[in-house]
TrEMBL record:
It comes from the Bacteria. This is HPP family protein. The keyword S-adenosyl-L-methionine does not apply. It comes from Nisaea acidiphila. The chain crosses the membrane at residues 20-38, 44-63, 75-96, 134-155. InterPro entries: HPP, TM_HPP.
Amino acid sequence: MLKLIRKMSGAGTRPAPAEALPALICGIGAAIAIAATAGLSELFSAELMMAPFGASCFLAFAVPESPLAQPRNIVLGHLVASGVGLAILTLLGPGWPTMALAVGLAVAAMQWTGTGHAPAGADPIVVFLLRPDFGFLVTPVLAGALLIVAVALIFNNLRPGKRYPVYW
């Protein structure tokens, strides 16, 4: 038991907070991506927004070098996780046990396909709460994820010393 408690206590040090200006620049990138997604949603009367995209923006703009922030992971992670959520909802119906199963299977599917994207782990929950049809995979999932990646590609590559993506 003591060994388990020691493991849960952490390594003992924590990273220093980011400097104010670089942190603000990351926040500006995230704001631009969400503004583009929400603004285009309104302009075209098409839903391109879902809550997990906020967390995707954190990865894409604050830690763009992270494997979880790469375009493949953002786009395919959301598609895989939402697809799993829709499939489980359709096959097994609503309810907390099937929602939990959908999240677990989505996490496993993203790991198995090499498309891990932490924010997408919430997608099956969104699916179970909204109960959309399979068109959900196109809007908001695919369209919104592609918009975030497009803004991240432009914004991050305009920043000195940054290169995005690390890989496709």
